[in-house]
Write a structure and sequence with these properties.
mainly alpha; 6 helices; elongated
């Protein structure tokens, strides 16, 4: 009986470790794919459009200037993998894909996306 219990415990520990490894590697792979997709979608024409948007948007300019003076050690994330882990854990992969689809077809605003990610959902918001 003790041997069966030990085998079960070892099996559960190994299963838990494997699950954690899959989660960790999965989010790393997801973050890499996101970066690759963004890079592949930014051809020279789109890159110029993004640059023009950044240069013409005062809020973005404010964020960029603030980011330039920020101490990296005070940031909540040090790597894109850490940020991806938190985002997937907080919002979920399926919901992120839904948000992406809504953003592409224009049925969700920037404020709604930020509200969703920050967890500030309101009853009147169209976000589920």
């Amino acid at each position: 009986m003790k041997k069966l219990l030990k085998i079960t415990v070892v099996f559960l520990v190994l299963l838990g470790a494997a699950g954690y490894a899959v989660w960790h590697l999965g989010t790393n792979i997801a973050s890499e794919k996101i970066i690759e997709k963004v890079k592949s979608n930014l051809d020279d024409e789109n890159l110029e459009e993004v640059k023009a948007y950044i240069e013409n948007d005062s809020k973005v300019q404010e964020i960029v200037s603030e980011a330039a003076t920020t101490n990296p050690d005070t940031l909540p994330f040090q790597t894109k993998e850490e940020a991806t882990h938190v985002l997937i854990k907080k919002v979920g992969v399926n919901r992120l894909l839904e948000i992406q689809e809504q953003a592409q077809n224009g049925s969700i605003s920037k404020d709604e996306v930020l509200s969703e990610i920050e967890g500030n959902k309101t009853g009147s918001s169209p976000i589920k």
